[in-house]
Amino acid sequence: MHRVTVLLLCALCSTLEGMRDGATTSVSFNCPSTSSVCFISGMVFTNPKETLTLTNVENKRSLSIKTGQITALRMEHCKAFQSFQKVTIGHTQLQELCINRDFVQVVAEGNRIKTIHTDPIEEQKPSRLEILKLNNNELTDAGVLCQFKALKELHLENNQLSKLDMACFSQMLQLEKLLLAGNRLNHLATTIDTLELPALTTLDLRNNTLTELDERHWAFESLATLQLAFNNLTHVTENMTRFVDLREVSLSNNNWHCEPLDALLTVLQTNFAKIVDGDSDCQGISNSTICCKEEVVPSEGELFGELAKFTELEQRYNNTNTSLLERLAEIEAEFETKLNETRLTILRSNEEEYSESEGSDDSNERQPESGQVTTGTPKDQAEAEEKDETATNPLGGRTCYRSRFGQGEKV
Prior knowledge:
- The chain is an alpha/beta fold.
- The protein has 2 domains: about 25-275, Leucine-rich repeat, LRR (right-handed beta-alpha superhelix), CATH 3.80.10.10; about 300-335.
- It contains 5 helices and 26 strands.
- It has helices at about 1-20, 75-80, 260-270, 300-365, 380-390; strands at about 25-30, 35-40, 45, 50-55, 60-70, 85-90, 95-100, 105, 115-120, 130-135, 155, 165, 175-180, 190, 195, 200-205, 210-215, 220, 225, 235, 250, 275, 285, 290, 400-405, 405-410.
- The relative contact order is 0.04.
- Keywords: Coiled coil, Signal.
């Protein structure tokens, strides 16, 4: 017992020492030996810088992580999964997922996946992935998935895709199911002349914001189920005339215009396709089980009326803009006048302060006047007075006396 305790303490000390020195730590999980599937429950792996290892994986081809908390699985972590063909990751709050080229099936539904990591593309060893289920995650871009040419099922429902180029799937010639419901798609672009998906049987576009479906470039000869409900569709470009094997279509909760809807329903009826849903409360016209509204085409008079309104609004804008510019010029002129007056006031104030300062300096330099208190002996005072008289006597410093009231007075 003591020996086991000592060993555990040593292992803990070694781990702490490695963490202190900045060394990469390793996290290991064991697969039960009694099952052909590696089941791991409660897996906690929150530091992507750590090394991940799995033990007892011999002769096991499937990995199932049921619960836990996993932040990221990057390509260096996928090395621990290289013996598996099927990988299932339950609700673990996973944000980054790695997919190596030997996986055949990956299921990671209901996580928070934003990023997909893959092997570098090598033509000599293409991906074997056939089924990929990433529904209910947080993907905003599906471009990284274009390289999986062997896909048969692609589940991307309830993500955050806002744009998608259907040309991404052009090399998936075995693709049977493409599920894109519950995203934010308002337009499906197809940047190649012809998109051939000969094996595609199911296309689900429900719960998006599509306003138009342009299927002119689609060559889906095996398409049997097309889900279009809960969008903003008003029409489809070619009324699905090329989908001769189409058997089930959902069309409810859109903004169909009646005339193109009539044409679409006629084509579907001719091809024996079934409308599998319907609108329960039509605000406009009910066409079969699908609501529609007449497309309002404005008359020539209405167009001229709208043009006149626009012209009037434009004139008002121009008048308002002119008035604002004139008022702005007046404000600028007033501001300039006030600024000049303020500058002049400050200049005058500075000049007055300067004059007062000079007068104060002259006063401080004057000699003491009579009556001021002086210091020194009578002899010193007499000599000082004599010097002053000499300095101010116009007769060259000589002292003159004249009689005044019988007494001698200096002049």
